[in-house]
Specification:
Elements lengths: L1 H14 L5 H22 L2 H8 L8 H36 L5 H5 L2 H23 L11 H28 L2 H24 L12 E4 L4 E6 L1 H11 L3 E3 L6 E2 L4 E5 L5 H8 L2 E4 L9 H14 L7 H18 L5 E6 L2 E7 L3 H16 L3 H17 L3 H21 L3 H8 L6
Parallel strand pairs: 3-8
Antiparallel strand pairs: 1-5, 2-4, 2-6, 3-5, 7-8
Helix pairs in contact: 2-6, 4-6, 4-7, 6-7, 8-11, 8-12, 11-12, 11-13, 12-14, 13-15, 14-15, 14-16
């Protein structure tokens, strides 16, 4: 039962990134609130308020119907316009920047809630309009509910104004990059802080029992707290072999256990892994490196030719890489000074190569971008905490200079590279 609950929780958790998730919930809320108001109307709330504050109650049937009909038609038009703006934003981000940005833009919580406010108000007004009876008696007219619909409409108009402001900000690449960078930076800082509290080394896992993945997909999340509790209860140690965010095939090794355990424990371990067919930066800070790199590469394409955006992307990559060199290639989870969980991550050498390789290919012809990349690598080398990190950086510097010398024919530009203190 607990395993089924965990699977259901993961599915519901992933739904929050769908553009229709919050609008659907708020639409249901609009219907429920309309029924609550009808319950109060049947108890005479409009008649009660009419006796004390008659100016707050609309007591004309035709006026109420015209107001609700106008609200419904107007809000439908506003909602269609808002959805069209979202689609334009997604199309522009995909064509000008990178298709990988779409999941993050679709899961924008503010836009989902604004669309939900529209749907809430529309459904509420429709139900109140249906509940109005063809009678002129004041106590039969839900005048107070109509007043509430006016308040919701004013709030919807305010949300629409905010939406126009927000969408104009979201469509700017600087804000998109900043959002990606901030999310990844916060995750990296938390991981580094946890790592500083651990003074242990990785145990030898060479002879541990291996278990393969049961399904294919992107390895998104894992319940480390549950696995830690399981390890303590059964006196076992677990190594998560697959890198978080990596695509796993069914034949790939998913995890290792330090000793033989029964099938029930193994099945429990499997239930703590969550796979999906897409990548989300909320669950994987490494995706930020991939997204920002693709933005820089796309901006240097002949069709776009925007070196300024590439420079901004490189600045954000520089800050993220500086944080990454302060971190080990593995994450250790301990309890009572004993390592119980080992979580592998992509090593720094592979990460730096994956970032630099496309930048070298598409940007080596631009002296300004090459200088910017060399400055990034030089600064990164001063922050590296391990010798192998510095060796990887030196290797990338040599590769970048080799590609730049092949693409840049002007000797003066080559001398500009030497001014950075790196002899070609």
């Amino acid at each position: 039962m607990r395993d089924k609950f965990l699977n259901l929780f993961h599915k519901v958790y992933n739904l929050k990134n769908k553009i229709a998730f919050f609008p659907a919930i708020m639409g249901i809320g609009g219907a429920l609130f309309a029924y609550i108001m009808m319950f109060l109307e049947n108890r005479g709330i409009s008649k009660y308020i009419l006796d004390f504050l008659p100016e707050l109650v609309i007591n004309n049937t035709e006026t109420a119907r015209v107001i609700l009909t106008t609200f419904i038609a107007g809000l439908i038009s506003i909602m269609v316009f808002s959805f069209s703006m979202v689609m334009i934003l997604l199309n522009q981000a995909s064509s000008n920047f990178s298709p990988r940005l779409l999941p993050g833009l679709i899961s924008n919580r503010r836009h989902q809630i604004i669309l939900g406010v529209y749907l809430f108000t529309i459904i509420y007004c429709i139900f109140i309009l249906v509940f109005i009876e063809p009678s002129g008696k004041k106590y039969q007219l839900p005048g107070f509910s109509v007043l509430i619909s006016i308040i919701f409409m004013v709030y919807s108009l305010a949300a629409f104004i905010y939406f126009i402001h927000s969408i104009s900000q979201e469509i700017q690449i600087n804000n998109i990059l900043l959002s990606i960078f901030t999310s990844s930076e916060n995750k990296l800082k938390k991981i580094i802080e946890k790592e500083k509290k651990i003074n242990a080394t990785k145990p030898d896992t060479e002879n541990w029992t291996s278990y393969n993945a049961k399904c294919s997909g992107y390895f998104n999340t894992i319940s480390t707290k549950t696995l830690l509790k399981l390890s303590k209860e059964n006196n076992i140690k677990i190594e998560i072999v697959s890198n978080k965010g990596a695509y796993c095939n069914e034949s790939d090794i998913l995890f290792k256990v330090d000793k033989e355990v029964n099938e029930k424990i193994i099945e429990t371990i499997y239930t703590n892994f969550n796979f999906s067919k897409g990548e989300l930066i909320d669950n994987n800070y490494l995706l930020a490196f991939k997204q920002i790199t693709e933005v820089a590469v796309k901006s240097m394409s002949p069709g776009i030719n925007d070196p300024g955006t590439a420079i901004n992307a490189i600045d954000y990559l520089s800050q993220l890489l500086i944080l990454r060199v302060q971190k080990q290639d593995i994450d250790l989870v301990e309890d009572d000074d004993e390592i119980l969980l080992v979580l592998n991550s992509i090593n720094f050498n592979d990460l730096l190569y994956n970032v630099m390789a496309p930048l070298r290919i598409y940007c080596a012809h631009d002296i300004i971008i090459v200088r910017k990349l060399l400055a990034l690598l030089k600064n990164l080398k001063t922050k590296a905490i391990k010798t192998e990190y510095k060796n990887s950086i030196d290797s990338e510097i040599n590769l970048l200079l080799t590609d730049a010398k092949r693409e840049i024919a002007n000797e003066s530009d080559i001398k500009k590279l030497e001014e950075l203190g790196i002899k070609t």
